[in-house]
Amino acid sequence: MAVFSGAGRDRAAWNPSGQFASIATMSERQIEVLLQNARSWPEEDQDEPVALARDIDARRSCVYRASAEELSAIDDVEVSGIATQREVETAFATFRRA
């Protein structure tokens, strides 16, 4: 979670060690360099920023897009009998509205 101060010039971001660290707003070029570097990362390391970016995009657009894993979990529940047909339909209707 990022905390913004001023007119978006400076940011404090919560880092994995549990402390706040100040970072400057990223330029378009810095983002391009970061993406280029990320292409060389192992797939499991690439998954984390992709999921984070998807969450940020959903939060900013007020649209939630279920991941493949979430949709698969709903499918599993549907065939397992854990949820009723109505509960499954309600869950899918929620995703369609988003």
Descriptive notes:
There is one protein chain. This protein has 98 residues and is an alpha+beta fold. It contains four helices and three strands; from the N terminus they run E-E-E-H-H-H-H. The radius of gyration is 18 Å and the shape is elongated.
- Averaged pLDDT, please? 75
Instruction: Give the class from helix and strand content and strand pairing.
Output: alpha+beta
What gyration radius follows from the Cα positions, in whole Å? Answer: 18 Å
| H and E string | EEEHHHH
Q: How are the strands ordered across the major sheet?
A: 1-2-3
Strand content of the residues, in percent? 5-15%
SS summary, helix count: 4
Helix content: 55-70%
Characterize the largest beta sheet: strand count, sense, and whether it forms a barrel.
Answer: 3 strands, antiparallel
Q: How far is the first residue's CA from the last residue's CA?
A: 23 Å
Please give the number of β-strands. 3
Report the principal-axis shape: elongated
